[in-house]
Amino acid sequence: MANSEAESRVLRLRAALDSGRWAPVKRQLASLNPSEVAKLLAALPERERNLVWEMVDPADDGQVLLHLPEDVRDGLIRQMDTAELVAAAEDLDIDDLADFVDSLPETVTREVMRALSDADRARLEAVLIHEPDTAGGLMNTDTVTVRPDVSLEVVMRYLRMRGELPAHTDALFVVDRYGVYLGRLALDRILTRDPASTVTEVMDRDSEALAVDMSERDVAQEFESSDLVSAAVVGSDRKLVGRVTVDDVVDVIRADAEHNLLSMAGVDEDEDLFAPVRRAARRRALWLGINLCSAFLAARVVGLFEATIQQVVALAVLMPIVASMGGIAANQIVALMVRGLALGQIGAGNTGALLRKEMLVALINGLLWGLVVAGVTSWWFDSPTLGFVIGLALLLNLMFAAMAGLLVPLMLRRLGLDPALAGSVIVTTITDVMGFFLFLGLGTLILL
Amino acid sequence: MANSEAESRVLRLRAALDSGRWAPVKRQLASLNPSEVAKLLAALPERERNLVWEMVDPADDGQVLLHLPEDVRDGLIRQMDTAELVAAAEDLDIDDLADFVDSLPETVTREVMRALSDADRARLEAVLIHEPDTAGGLMNTDTVTVRPDVSLEVVMRYLRMRGELPAHTDALFVVDRYGVYLGRLALDRILTRDPASTVTEVMDRDSEALAVDMSERDVAQEFESSDLVSAAVVGSDRKLVGRVTVDDVVDVIRADAEHNLLSMAGVDEDEDLFAPVRRAARRRALWLGINLCSAFLAARVVGLFEATIQQVVALAVLMPIVASMGGIAANQIVALMVRGLALGQIGAGNTGALLRKEMLVALINGLLWGLVVAGVTSWWFDSPTLGFVIGLALLLNLMFAAMAGLLVPLMLRRLGLDPALAGSVIVTTITDVMGFFLFLGLGTLILL
């Protein structure tokens, strides 16, 4: 089974915790990297989590906090004093620090700013002025730059003098004397080309820099489609301001995917599976409340047909079938639309064709399952007319479901909202209401 | 708006297609990289897609096919003749070729194998013997290796002689004379350390190699937690067999996330939004059919209470509320569980704590919304007893929903199945059946 290693780690740690022996817990923690410690903490119930957190090496505090889901991070930060938080912040890269600062209380942020060197403070401010979900918010300022007119020999001498390069440096950036971005010089070219050649001869001019205000989703698509490890970020004046690295892009992709999955199901993406009961209950209550309104709306529709149901109780027995099939069909389309919109595959150019296609798919499945439902119902209630009513209602509701599943995500996006919100509640309301109305309405017309 | 560039590209291309002018279409295609061409093709309806495909530069065919969703790829491959397919295959890396070969008809695979050089054929076979969803299936065999006892000076001379390095080479791998993996030598260390030092002195011994049979999900977690760009893959004898690079890992993460999103909604992950109507209808029919069985089951339960409904029609009006609230609550938990299981956060060590927590959350929300429903119902139907019945049924159904949402994904995983299958159909069946049974059952006991 996958994940068995992670599981057995949690198990061993909990066993050690339960037995009250701290030495093995500490030993186990010391063997993990910050991201693994973060995963472990996120998987522990709150009491154990706080105990283990006390035992994490303070030098790792910053990195561990950074890798935690927001909810868990906020919980732990609330227990730390300012001195601990400042110490944790000092060990972070500028781009990580910028993320981290967002979680800190105002007063601590000021302390952290004061503790930084002037140069670091300026760099942090350079990142903080950008929206967090843009290339500027994702970037780090640790670029290594070279001039176009020097030889590779000189570049190599410079690098040896400079020492260690920042993580994920697969290329140096070539800039002119004004700091304007000209291209990139991959490390492997420095190593494989003739040392006498100049940077201009060897550098890659085709690799486009990212604009500082590019959305992080577009950044991720650019990394994916061009298989990048790092990319330069430039301001509107084409001057180099920083670089984005693939590790941060992976986080964006992961977060985006989780967001879609959770918001389709009506959960807040920041919800921590091991959050305290009160917080989890509050966060989920919202969608349940919205759904309750929508369920009452559906009940109102059923209520319109009380007299009909009184005479033909079979309608009440069968009506959940029509509604439920519509819900499933609509959610299938919503999921495909959410993926298609995230990948940038859907636009004004093809919605017409898509709608025609989905209506046809609904027609085919409506005819197929409508006939099945009609057959089973005719036999169960010994009434071909009732069979005809439910078959027709199912067919029509699947067509409505196709329209709703396709158009609601598009409309949400047009309004600047998240298309995944169409999932479960909104689209299901439409298919429930239409399902009950069609079935009971047709029943009233045809059976009475 | 995000994606607007991609959208406008599709729009422009379709306009050019509609006008029948091929020159601008070709010009636009030539300015895109293979992954962008693939995205464009995937976003076009079938007729236009085939037209555009004819115009793609044959030298890019292989790369474009590789970036397409499986469904679209298979459609295009069916139209190509063997010579074209062999030509497309020849331009691919070994790891990409291994993926590609899976999509080819048997006869073409044999042709492709014959067209390869002996060395390439041996390398392809080395990748093909591994399961596609393991490190071995993901890896490429284009490793660049060095011996531990040479100096960096010598390594640099060797690299200059060798020329261009494979894409995503951020490190060379250090192996002994038997090919056993010893560690990695990062390119930036070659550039920044004293050229007289030996590989042994400079190399990183701590970086663990991946086992060839490690699951691709674990590989992705390792890349994420250690922020890797490439990692060595070793066989059970610790001999280096290949390397995995971050671009392939990004694809795994993306595919995994899409899989969860779509399978929660009951759609096949390979389904192409622009698939031909007949294929799309067939693929979605399965879940609709399963859901129909489950809906009939729920209807059977309602049917048990026909006599009760006859006397108190309000029960029929209100019963969808109880079922729908249970469905939403259960799906919220399923989404959190699917994410938690994918991240390896859930195991035997904490399911007990999780279940207790979710039952408490359900109790709180059940009491809250149970009271609201009871109040509204008492007022609407002027019957406090009916209000009490629906409030209690809602509370109990939310508790059942919590159990189902938590335990069904765990059970599926224990059975070696995909936990995301719990979404929509399975869990909703449970909450529908329980919702109707509890509400109508309590109604029969209390109201009659």
UniProtKB/TrEMBL annotation, chains A, B:
It is found in: Cell membrane; Membrane. SUPFAM superfamilies: CBS-domain pair, MgtE membrane domain-like, MgtE N-terminal domain-like. It comes from the Bacteria. The chain crosses the membrane at residues 285-305, 311-338, 359-381, 387-408, 420-447. GO terms for molecular function: magnesium ion transmembrane transporter activity; metal ion binding. It is a multi-pass membrane protein. Homodimer. Acts as a magnesium transporter. This is Magnesium transporter MgtE. It comes from Panacagrimonas perspica.
